[in-house]
Amino acid sequence: MKQFSSIGFTLIELMIVISIIGILAAVALPAYQTHVGKSQASRVMVETGGLRSLVEACLNEGKTTVGSGDGECDPGAVGSTLIDGASQVGAVLPVGQGVPQVTVAADGVVAIEAKFGGSAYPLFHTKTLTWSRTADGSWNCTTTIDTFFRPKGCDL
């Protein structure tokens, strides 16, 4: 009797491999989504935090209103797919992008608020991240994002 050597896989072996891949995917997907959420929160913190120096320059020049006219502060906010908010200086933003909203008071109190939206992590929609400046010039970051996703350096 002649024996044939089998090089292929049996159905059972294939089912075992597929079930192992399924288990690994079930474990990896939530970890990946958590990583995406944390990185998006950090990205919005950095994007809004970058406006602080531009706002400081406006305050040093005595500009206390946001706009694009003479004597007004144009913080130079660039559109982000993670933020909802219309441009305050009349610029046209691409569809699905928004910018942080900047409010400047005459006494130097400033708020830079980013409302999560667009393609942000679904749990972040309706959440905000705010940089606040006191009259003495100190900045503070606060957010309404859950503690688990909150970027370092940003308080509740």
From TrEMBL:
The lineage of its organism: Bacteria, Pseudomonadati, Pseudomonadota, Gammaproteobacteria, Cellvibrionales. This is Prepilin-type cleavage/methylation domain-containing protein. Belongs to the N-Me-Phe pilin family. The chain crosses the membrane at residues 7-32. One of its GO terms (cellular component) is pilus. The keyword Transmembrane applies. The keyword Membrane applies. InterPro entries: N_methyl_site (IPR012902), Pilin (IPR001082), Pilin-like (IPR045584). One of its GO terms (biological process) is cell adhesion. Keywords: Membrane, Methylation, Transmembrane, Transmembrane helix.
